[in-house]
Write a structure and sequence with these properties.
The protein has 90 residues and is of the alpha+beta class. Helices cover 13% and strands 29% of the residues. It contains one helix and four strands. The radius of gyration is 16 Å and the shape is globular.
Length: 90
């Protein structure tokens, strides 16, 4: 949630044993200094070898919707219910 917007990324789950060494299903990176602050939330697909000339597909759906209730905190039941409703529509 940020500035009246809610971003939800939807993708198939990846079992822990299929993630890259030292990584997880979702990685969160943050950098903050006075002039260059960012947070990156990166979903990770299955860790595998892709031979030259081959390809894989992995679908990630981004849902961006207006969210004006700034009083709701991460993990709150209201937010969880809103995200579940959003995902159930797709």
């Amino acid at each position: 949630m940020n500035n009246g917007l809610l971003l939800v990324k939807q993708f198939d789950p990846v079992a822990a044993e299929l993630t890259a060494p030292g990584e997880a299903e979702v990685e969160i990176y943050g950098h903050g200094d006075k002039y260059h602050t960012y947070i990156e939330v990166e979903q990770q697909g299955v860790y595998s070898v892709i031979p030259p000339g081959d390809e894989i597909e992995w679908q990630v759906i981004w849902h961006l919707t207006e969210w004006s209730d700034e009083s709701v905190k991460p993990g709150s039941s209201k937010l969880v219910n809103q995200v579940k409703a959003l995902l159930n529509r797709h």
